[in-house]
Design a protein that fits this description.
mainly alpha, 11 helices, globular
Length: 262
Amino acid sequence: MEEKILNIKKVIEPLRQEIINHKVYSVINNIDDLKIFMEYHVFAVWDFMSLLKSLQNNLTCTSIPWFPVGSAETRYLINEIVAGEESDIDSFGNRKSHFELYLDAMIQTGADTSQIEKFITELKAGNDLKKSLVNAKVANEAQEFVDFTFKIINSKKEYLQSAIFTFGREDLVPGMFHSIVKELKEKSPENISIFNYYLERHIEVDGGHHSHLALQMTSNLCGSNDKFWMEAEQGAIESLQKRIHLWDGVYKKILENKKVLA
């Protein structure tokens, strides 16, 4: 299966490089720019958790009465990832999901959390995904990103969900972005420390241990089925294209904001 993994990595590498070298990073020059980035990106952080929990629901038994589901190895892989993502520790040693940690970072920087909070409130009230996104007035690019993720979730194809999770969501934080945040932290440590910590945890946990677990999970689920591997490759490509489109939206919004402030 190693050959199949390497082939997908080779196919998607140009898209990964486009994301890593995206022009959006070059226009994040101050905290106001970072706020806009976070107000878009938080929706990707949220639906990442939804994708993760969908995998756990499909690959393990999360209902009563309990029965063993699938292979014990795959159950281990997804449960190990969920434990780290859903109950990590913040810089003070408190248990928090990466989403909650991201919200803390937004609040510290002064970013607007009203859209993501309105969106979640709408969902909790029983509204469907599309209506909740519209009612919260979420930017089109973020809406399309979330829509794609939930199209994959609703496919009920565990191997496809795993492929998107593995190749479309992990290891995409470029070093240049981390450097930008570190520079902002040096200028305003009271505003950026939590976000800087979030990035460090993302690189340490998601880009390291979790990425290896996710690769093994995808390999296990696709197995020797060539059709599964083909769908996994196409899904990974689409996922990265959606990320580029999301970053394009952030870039456009930051430039618009700079013109208003000029």
